[in-house]
Amino acid sequence: MFFIAGGTGFIGSHLVTSLGEKGLQGRCLIRSLKSSGSTAICKNAGFDTVVGDITNRESLKGKLDSCEIVVHLVGIIDEDQGISFEKVHVEGTDNLVNEAQRAKVRHFFYLSSLGASTSSWSRYLKTKAEAENIVRESGIPHTIFRPCIVVGKGDGFTAKLKDLISYSPVVPLPGEGKTKFQPIFVEDLIKCFIKLFSTQLPVAHPVSPVYELGGPEQLTYNEILFQLMEAMGSSKPVIHIPLEMVKLGLPLSKISRSVGSLFGKKIPSITGEQLRLLEIDNICDTDSVEKQFGFIPIRYKEALRLFVKK
């Protein structure tokens, strides 16, 4: 049986649905029974639900009992109201691993991020790497996925870009837009997971590999933006704003969003850390999925046709 932490999020909801369609059994960790939508995702897949929070170790006690595989998908890209990268990625992972050890689960899967490194300047990537180390040192056979940007229905990256495109007569783009990324379609990422876990469960492996995963093409931020605009039917002019200027305006961004909401304008949020991530390539081998899982993932433009409407 699978235990899914983060099963009601963007990637998790796709995974839970796919596992359910294949008749596999699972249990979803949800933070509250009040969220009927979240509960429905799991129940529609035939999964049980239990209430708990990975940042609260006591709430996890007994919730992993009788589960063979733990799937840890919980992560944040924005910090808010005391919810920090350290609290979620590091403490949360430690709590979940601790309970997995107690429950004697046979395999632990962790969804990390491409570029994760304990020496990274990015607290997001640094804490992802620290979480990886907790998983490695747990003594539990494990698998770690490090995907690049994952896109598909419900993804936050595309949602922010769509807001950026929609909210004004021009599209303001931070920086020169030359940084390279390798977006992978969510259904292709799920296919990698299914291939790994539904054919031959790697529960007996004492050491499991780290998989770096990306789509079949490396695209600049400009190319990603223009392909999304094309999918949306938008032909607005794009204006590049120097990153330093955008950083100077960050203290005013919350005020701008508040004012914008009064006029029905959804101004996308951005942090200094997210701006810095736009300055560093986030790529791996373009044939990473084909070499490791035996299929070629779809291109970004093709993925957009499946979940973005004009």
Keywords:
Rossmann fold; alpha/beta; 42% helix; two-stranded parallel sheet; 13 strands; 12 helices; seven-stranded parallel sheet; globular; 310 residues
Write the layout of secondary structure elements.
Layout: E1 2-5, H1 10-21, E2 26-30, H2 36-44, E3 48-51, E4 69-72, H3 85-103, E5 107-111, H4 123-136, E6 142-147, E7 150-151, H5 156-166, E8 171-174, E9 180-181, E10 184-185, H6 186-198, E11 210-213, E12 219-220, H7 221-232, E13 238-241, H8 243-248, H9 250-262, H10 272-277, H11 288-293, H12 300-307
Parallel strand pairs: 1-2, 1-4, 2-3, 4-5, 5-6, 6-11, 7-10, 8-13
Antiparallel strand pairs: 9-12
Helix pairs in contact: 1-6, 3-4, 5-7, 7-12
Would you mind describing this structure in some detail?
With 310 residues, the chain is α/β, with parallel strands linked by helices. The protein has a domain at 2-147: NAD(P)-binding Rossmann-like Domain (Rossmann fold, 3-Layer(aba) Sandwich). The chain contains 12 helices and 13 strands. A 7-stranded parallel β-sheet has the order 3-2-1-4-5-6-11, with helices on both faces. α2 (36-44) links the parallel β2 (26-30) and β3 (48-51). α1 packs across α6, α5 packs across α7 (221-232) and α7 packs parallel to α12. The longest helix is centred in the N-terminal third of the chain and has 19 residues, at 85-103. The radius of gyration is 20 Å and the shape is globular. The N and C termini lie far apart (40 Å).
